Amino acid sequence: GIDVYHDTIKKDQSILAFTASYTQHFTRYFSTACFQRSGQEIAENLQACMKEALKFYFAHNKSLPDKIIVYRDGVGDGQLAAVQRLEVSQMRRAFESFDKYFPKLAVIVVKKKVNARFFQNMGGPANPPPGTVIDREVVTRDGYDFYLISQHVAQGSASPTHYHVILDETPLTPDHMQMLTYKLCHTYYNWSGTVRVPSPCQYAHKLAFLIGQSIHTTPHQRLNGYLYYL
Fold it and tell me: Would you call 169 a catalytic residue per the annotation?
């Protein structure tokens, strides 16, 4: 999970937060953060973050992951091309730091601020159940994107989350990718139900928010394997 937050005190810097699971069941997470130019949404130090996460993964598993799926939060539709051009290249350079390492990479941009609303006809308009995926008719014609409603809403209309898959080298089908995304919405530690975005994305947001709002400095490396920011 990757997110960027703009520091509220030090106006000349923004925070890039990076979280990554390093266990088979996505229950433990590595985290790191670095500073970049103020107002810069595109990650500038992603190569170092990815390399550090892979080293941490190798230290605990004695191997490197075959597939890497990245959920990127905090960018708009107009920045999708920049993410694909600049951030993906940084990830690939991090892979080159390891001998003969060529993992399958997928990058998914997560967008929470959407105007779209969806309803089902139950004798009248009603919110769709959690887990509803919309991947036809209202999505982009030439792209790979989908809407997912991950939460139950008792009052008002349910807000979907929009996912743009800007790169997918994995063998996962669209159905599998959508199911994985939905299941990751169940694994956030601070809530017994589902959250709007996959848990790695929410963890990255929490880490970036903590640094930008409170500590204004890079956390100590000894904290990298703990969810201290929740």
Answer: no
Q: Is 164 tagged catalytic?
A: no
Catalytic-labelled residue, pool 7, 41, 44, 135: 41
Backbone φ/ψ region at 131: left (φ over 0), alpha (ψ -120 to 50), beta: left
Cα 122 to Cα 4: distance, rounded to the nearest angstrom:
40
3 catalytic residue (yes or no): yes
52 catalytic per annotation: no
DSSP E strands, the chain: 2-6, 13-21, 29-37, 67-73, 104-111, 120-121, 125-126, 132-134, 145-149, 161-168
Strand partners, 37: 13
Determine which one of 145, 162, 164, 205 is catalytic.
Answer: 205
Q: pTM score, two decimals?
A: 0.94
CA separation for the pair 167, 170 (Å, rounded): 9
Q: What is the pLDDT of residues 89-128, one digit of tens each?
A: 999 999 999 999 999 999 999 999 999 999 998 888 899 9
